[in-house]
Design brief:
heterodimer; A: Jelly Rolls; four-stranded antiparallel β-sheet; 4 helices; B: Elongation Factor Tu (Ef-tu), domain 3; Rossmann fold
Amino acid sequence: MDTLEPLIAEHPFFKGLEKSYLELIVGCASNVRFDAGQFVFREGEEANQFYIVRRGKVAIESSPPGQKPINLQTFSDGEILGWSWLVPPYHWQFDAKAVELTRAITLDGKCLRNKCLEDHSFGYELLSRLVPVLGKALEAARMQLLDVYGVQQQR
Amino acid sequence: MDASNPMIPQPRKVKRVIRETHDTFTLCVEPEIHEQEKLFKPGQFNMLYAFGVGEVPISFSGDPGKPNLCHHTIRNVGTVTRALANLKAGDMVGVRGPFGSAWPVKESRGNDIVIIAGGIGLAPLRPAIYALLEERDQFGEIVLLYGARTQEDLLFTKEFETWRGKYGVQVRVTIDSAGPNWKGNVGVVTTLFPGVRFDPANTVAMICGPEVMMRFAVIELKNCGTAEKNIHVTMERNMKCAIGFCGHCQFGPAFICKDGPVFSFAEISPFFGIREI
């Protein structure tokens, strides 16, 4: 039976990971598929997993009361989706919806959280890979907040 | 009028006005017959004078291979650009130029090209795109990463399919804010990098957009492995005379109007992003 190991091992996020850690992660991984318009997760739900988008596109949305959903950011091929599984109280802060047919690898965040507690070296390894992802997301959010195109000077 | 004096605007007829978006338009200005030989280079700009109102520097946005009509894409954001926005076909506009440095199109032959544009920044890059496509076989991969505020702010979208289909350009578009009907990417322009095919070590990059955006684009390119000398940016400051006399557009040791607006990032990196400059 084919395993997800080659796919996960080659992904930049996991590249160079020690074999025992990789096996552990593969044990927590499975394939998922979302049709266009299908929710990947909903705001307020328990966040017990995260995703590696293999092919497709997922939009992070917010739905203010009485308004149409606002698409805040999209995640495409190869990107890591979701970090609420790592931060108490482990609930999704936004909706995530497939914009088109999307195939992804889902990783059991609850299982990985427990493994991080048991093995701090593994925890450090995983977090040192996740922090840059969070840093990029924060950077991008700040840039969006700046509304740089709205105040651009004319040349 | 003295046509040889670069400080004196020459009256030119507006041949056509193209409404690009809700706040952006393109003036198609007819040059004098003898001026058609005075070709502009991609990246250069003209000073456009709205009679009795004022003058603004506006980049060329049309095809440098078709100099019979000069295109200037303008965002209506101030007094002068508002006056220019009110012009109709047949009206007159004052023109000085072309001025400034150019995108290194010919110098980039044999390389992959990554073009990164933000908002109206696609306009000064479009002549470079036309020039690249004119001799498409001289270049490897050509990538266009384009970010804008909303779907309604995207420029020249009708041309994207031609660039993709006919010339194999990797065109990737993203917007900062989207409604439910948008099926494309949402996020800042640097999020478009993953999955793009180019050889960073043999790439020439051309970037135009807000300085904050350019700063992050440069960081991303350098992280990929593109050398500073191969990254070119176009700078904006308060240009007035356009010939390096008045000093309004001083940027460190350079004048944007005379030494720029297109710079190699290696030239200006010591001054880039410094608040006081």
